[in-house]
Amino acid sequence: MVQNIGREKTMKEKLYDIATNIGMKLFAEYWGKASLKATDRWIEYPWALESLSKPPCKILDVGCAGSMFPLILKAFKYDIWGLDIRQYPSVGYIRFRKRDVCDTRFCDDIFDAIIAISTIEHIEDDFKAIQEIHRILQPKGLFLMTVPFASKSKQTKFHRIYDMFRLQVLLKDFKTEIEIVDSPETDNYKLALIRATK
Fold it and tell me: Domains in the chain, ordered, with CATH?
């Protein structure tokens, strides 16, 4: 076994450690069936962490059921909230609401940042979801979103794949930066990493 003495761990290595030590225990239905392999999360999580302001920062993670990301954000000292239509494991230091993102019942302008990692493409009315996210995000707040991307938008059995036109229409009320990267999961689409400000 080779040891890297004196070398600081990369963000991906730190995330892998958290996944191994905590995530597999809490999310057995997602992580316990097979060893961890490269997924879109290996791109999405470090990108999101690097995009966020330093704590304190009140963050909503939309579509967090089955995700370790709220735990990772909490480890970095963020004030983290979770929102999903499915239940999140009961951990006292993460505030969670079991609700639809199209009707969150949060007050206006409440979050500094909102994250939707590989979530919006699964929501039937993605336009309504984005309107609700815009409503609850503070002025100049940051919205981080990742979705599957291809040259032409299409609907599959499980999710929507976005093209540039649909993203621009969907996010018309935001100032956006869109980065397209290869997906480690599939050759069927790429991954759009979107930084949007209100």
Answer: 37-197 (3.40.50.150)
Residue 52 buriedness (CB in 10 A; 0-12 / 13-18 / 19+)? middle
Tens-binned pLDDT, residue by residue, of the chain (198 aa): 344 445 676 765 666 666 555 555 555 555 444 445 667 888 898 899 999 998 889 999 999 887 888 888 988 899 999 999 988 776 767 888 899 999 999 999 999 999 999 999 999 999 999 999 999 999 999 999 999 999 999 988 889 999 999 999 999 999 999 999 999 888 889 999 999 999
Cα–Cα dist 194/146, whole Å: 6
Give the closest residue to 91 by CA, choosing from 111, 67, 114.
67
What are the CB-based long-range contacts (under 8 Å, 24+) for 25-33? 26/68, 26/71, 26/89, 26/91, 27/66, 27/67, 27/68, 27/89, 29/66, 30/66, 31/68
Location of structure tokens 């949060």: 106
